């Protein structure tokens, strides 16, 4: 496989996050910390409410069973039972309260006045009353036993008063279990630390119906305040400390990522800029330490700019040396000849013959012409290195122009002559005119232009039958002021101007080795690519 067929693969670009992505991820991570903490508290608090509800369900269900058996054995049971209600499966009763969705009702309404209890009902209350204090001491919950009409039989200081108007009690009197959350009114304000807990101000109420033979016999009404999340977290302080350590580690990780991805690369880029300003070498590619995509692109652009400026600075310094050298030689010759002529005019030296005077004057004119040629070439080079004017031309038009300008050379063109080239007619005249002029000055009698298309490039080969270019000169022919015809007035600027024009249009020029004569290859992109 030839070298021309080898396609160089560009190195795979390393994936880098964008600066905006890094900042967004960091901000979201920091913002999520309090949300995660709050969500944890809410979740744990809701679990405590469900736990309290579940315990009350079990306790009231047991107490309802005991009361149902007591009523079933009572001789006056028919007087204690109410209407038939739908049968409820006790296994289907599960905790379902949710702090986030269920409403928190207001304070429980006070008991209302009610008719006097019947002797059978009052006797039942008397028998049940001793059961409640021990249960309350163990469960820390408040219990009231209501009859079939919602009148309190036992528990608390509301015996003989009606709770039938309370929402959850009314539901239970219809044979359905009901649990609600209500605002808790405490005689003592909660400590300030408890303020973060919503469950602190909530009390859970459950109303469990008492059924005997499918008929409503009463209600067990119980309430309890859920455990406080702060107090429980204090009890689990070891785990809480571990969670805080994890949050601190996450925060430290966020800070480290921010420093490595943004802070440190910017500091490194700043140090790199200072080093280059003090004369450090410039590389063509940035180092891999620039983390984000924007900073890596900025570093690459900075290195490229610094490299171009360094190359431009070196080029200007070298060019200035060449220009001063090229201008100094004819100026020195002109000054020397003028001084000799002045001395002869003043009679300070030996008399100068007419032939000598003419020779000195001819030298002055020749050197002045060389200076004019150098200045003209410098103007052309300056113009070539600036933005080239837009325009297109064809090889057919270029060939016709060359035939008109160089009548002593036989000029032929072959290939796709109608294909447009991304050169304005003026630039095309300079480029191909210099090449044709060089061919004529090196003894060429024929000049052939071949154009072909290779991929997305136009290739124009210019071949002449002149004396050719020595191998040692092929690498230097495009250097400014390098010429092998200095004695014949050559400035060494022509090919430099040609290369500058072509590079300004995205093209190139190179010497192509041939057996006889000289060959150049000009490469230009398609007009649509420029």
Structure write-up:
The chain contains 12 helices and 13 strands. It has 530 residues and is an alpha+beta fold. Among the domains are: 217 residues, Beta-Lactamase; 142 residues, Histidine kinase-like ATPase, C-terminal domain (Heat Shock Protein 90), CATH 3.30.565. Strands 1-4-5-6-2-3 form a 6-stranded mixed beta sheet. Strands 8-10-11-13-12 form a 5-stranded mixed beta sheet, covered by helices on one side. A hairpin with a 5-residue loop joins strand 2 and strand 3. The longest helix is centred in the first third of the chain and has 55 residues. The chain starts with 18 loop residues before the first helix and ends in a 5-residue tail after the last strand.
Cα-to-Cα separation, first versus last residue: 30 Å
How are the strands of the biggest sheet laid out side by side? Answer: 1-4-5-6-2-3
**Structural class, from secondary structure content?**
alpha+beta
* Second rung of CATH, namely the architecture of the domain at 19-235: 2-Layer Sandwich
Order of helices and strands: HHEHHEEHEEEHHHHEHEEHEEHEE
Rg (C-alpha, Å): 52 Å
> Which word captures the global form?
rod-shaped
The CATH class of the domain at 19-235 turns out to be: Alpha Beta
What's the CATH H-level homologous superfamily of the domain at 19-235? PAS domain
Helix content percent band:
40-55%
- CATH fold-level name of the domain at 19-235: Beta-Lactamase
> How large a portion of the residues is in β-strands, by DSSP E?
5-15%
Question: Mean of the pLDDT scores?
Answer: 78
DSSP summary, beta strand count: 13
Largest sheet: 6 strands, mixed
Alpha plus pi helix count: 12
The unreliable regions are 1-8, 191-199
């Amino acid at each position: 496989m030839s070298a021309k067929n080898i396609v160089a693969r560009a190195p795979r670009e390393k994936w880098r996050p964008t600066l905006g992505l890094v900042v967004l991820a960091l901000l979201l991570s920091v913002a999520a910390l309090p949300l995660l903490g709050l969500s944890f508290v809410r979740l744990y608090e809701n679990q405590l409410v469900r736990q309290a509800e579940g315990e009350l369900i079990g306790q009231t269900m047991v107490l309802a069973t005991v009361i149902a058996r007591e009523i079933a054995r009572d001789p006056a049971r028919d007087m204690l039972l109410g209407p038939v209600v739908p049968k409820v499966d006790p296994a289907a009763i599960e905790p379902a309260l949710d702090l986030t969705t269920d409403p928190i009702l207001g304070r429980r309404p006070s008991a209302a006045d009610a008719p006097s209890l019947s002797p059978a009902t009052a006797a039942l209350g008397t028998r049940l009353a001793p059961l409640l204090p021990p249960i309350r001491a163990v469960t820390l919950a408040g219990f009231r036993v209501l009859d079939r009409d919602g009148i309190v039989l036992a528990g608390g200081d509301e015996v003989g008063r009606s709770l039938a108007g309370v929402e959850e009690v009314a539901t239970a009197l219809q044979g359905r279990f009901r649990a609600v959350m209500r605002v808790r009114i405490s005689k003592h304000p909660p400590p300030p630390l408890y303020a973060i807990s919503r469950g602190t101000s909530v009390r859970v109420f459950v109303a469990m119906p008492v059924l005997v033979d499918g008929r409503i016999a009463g209600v067990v009404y119980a309430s309890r305040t859920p455990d406080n999340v702060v107090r429980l977290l204090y009890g689990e302080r070891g785990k809480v400390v571990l969670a805080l350590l994890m949050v601190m580690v996450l925060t430290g990780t966020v800070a480290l990522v921010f420093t490595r991805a943004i802070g440190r690369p910017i500091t490194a880029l700043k140090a790199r800029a200072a080093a280059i300003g003090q004369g450090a070498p410039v590389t063509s590619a940035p180092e891999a330490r620039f983390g984000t995509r924007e900073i890596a692109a900025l570093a690459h652009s900075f290195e490229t700019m610094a490299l171009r400026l360094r190359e431009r600075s070196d080029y200007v310094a070298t060019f200035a040396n060449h220009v001063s050298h090229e201008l100094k030689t004819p100026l020195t010759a002109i000054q020397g000849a003028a001084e000799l002529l002045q001395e002869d005019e003043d009679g300070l030296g030996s008399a100068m013959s007419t032939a000598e005077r003419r020779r000195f004057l001819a030298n002055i004119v020749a050197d002045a012409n060389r200076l004019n040629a150098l200045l003209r070439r410098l103007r052309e080079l300056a113009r070539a290195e600036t933005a080239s004017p837009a325009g297109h031309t064809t090889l057919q038009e270029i060939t016709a122009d060359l035939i008109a300008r160089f009548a002593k050379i036989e000029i032929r063109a072959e290939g796709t002559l109608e294909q447009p080239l991304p050169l304005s007619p003026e630039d095309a005249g300079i480029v191909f005119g210099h090449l044709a002029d060089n061919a004529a000055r090196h003894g060429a009698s024929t000049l052939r232009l071949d154009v072909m298309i290779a991929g997305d490039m136009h290739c124009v080969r210019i071949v002449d039958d002149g004396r050719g270019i020595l191998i040692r000169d092929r690498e230097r022919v495009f250097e400014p002021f390098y010429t092998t015809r200095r004695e014949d007035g050559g400035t060494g600027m022509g090919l430099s101007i040609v290369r500058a024009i072509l590079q300004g249009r995205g093209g190139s020029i190179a010497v192509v080795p041939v057996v006889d004569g000289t060959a150049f290859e000009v490469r230009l992109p398609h007009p649509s690519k420029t």
